[in-house]
Amino acid sequence: MRRFSASDIVLKVVGLLLVTAAVLKGHELLTVPLANKDLWSWRPFLIFQVEFELALGIWLLSGLFKRLAWLAALTCFGLFSAVTLYKGLIGAASCGCFGTVHVNPWITLLAIDLPSLGALILFRPAQQQSEGFRRYRLRRAAATAMFLLIGPAGIIGMSNRGTANLNADGDIIGDSTFVVLEPEEWIGRRFPLLRYIEVNKVLSDGLWMVVMYNSYCPHCRNTMPQYEGTALARTIGIGNRSVALVELPPYAPPRWDPVSACTKCTRGRLSSKAEWFVHTPIEVWLNDGMVSRIVKK
């Protein structure tokens, strides 16, 4: 049996970690729409990141050109550590390394990036001896075939993820079930989501602060209790403004809902006919159904 050195084990563990991260990010690109607001949510950059991590992970697992693969992994995790540190310093909720699996940047930095970087530094592979030409050719062919099978299919799938939008009248424009909402464009217009909220008739009249939230969003769960107070629900902002809490799908069972069943706020749900993509929680201030202010929490 072949004996693996410490450096072999480190390279394979790091390779498996990269492949896992690439698969999770690829799954996110295939299932969740992106805002494309900055580099970290720009689809072409994320596709490149997925393909790069997948290629490097397969390379490390193949065992080809160990010294060169080690240098590439060392550089990669040095960059990962710097980016994760930056996200931790700016207070990002997730490092973004594992797609829809949200991990605090500080946890990723201290538990994954820095330990991986340290292990790569400590266990540098020795100069690789020449191996049999046939074995080398088979391993290279297997690694190349694996990437060629996964890579192009992944790029095509992740690039074709469609989204839809709302026009000023609240009509869904596009064929996708993923509807990207742009609340900043609603100011001065009639609230385009009124027709999709079950308590729309109530919200069409008077002064309201509509708080849109997702029960599975950690930030929403921490923020919702502040709207629960009777005094806040009755008098908030300028004048007598009522508070409506609107849950986005997927709806949570009662035990997971961050809003109390006995809340003094008006409650509602956004229709599940579409999968809505918007920053949550968000406040939409209404005057007789017209949007006067947008506040992202």
Short note summarizing the structure:
The chain is an alpha/beta fold and 297 residues long.
Helix content: 40-55%
Shape: elongated
**How large is the count of helical segments?**
8
Low-confidence stretches: 155-160
Q: What is the residue-mean pLDDT, rounded to a whole number?
A: 79
Computed CA radius of gyration, to the nearest angstrom: 25 Å
Structural class: alpha/beta
Report the count of strand segments: 9
- Strand percent estimate: 5-15%
Major sheet, described briefly?
5 strands, mixed
> What's the SSE pattern?
HHHHHEEEHEHHEEEEE
User: What topology, given as strand order, has the largest sheet?
Assistant: 6-5-4-8-9
Count of all domains: 2
**CA distance, first residue to last residue:** 58 Å
What attributes characterize this protein structure?
297 residues; two-stranded antiparallel sheet; 2 domains; Glutaredoxin; alpha/beta
3D structure, described in words:
The chain is an alpha/beta fold and 297 residues long. The protein has 2 domains: 6-159, no CATH class; 165-296, Glutaredoxin (3-Layer(aba) Sandwich). Helix content is 44%, strand content 13%. The protein has 8 helices and 9 strands. It is elongated, with a radius of gyration of 25 Å.
Sequence-ordered SSE layout with sheet pairings:
Elements: H1 6-31, H2 43-62, H3 66-89, H4 105-122, H5 133-159, E1 165-166, E2 172-173, E3 178-180, H6 200-203, E4 207-213, H7 218-223, H8 230-234, E5 242-247, E6 266-269, E7 275-277, E8 282-287, E9 290-296
Helix pairs in contact: 1-2, 2-5, 3-4
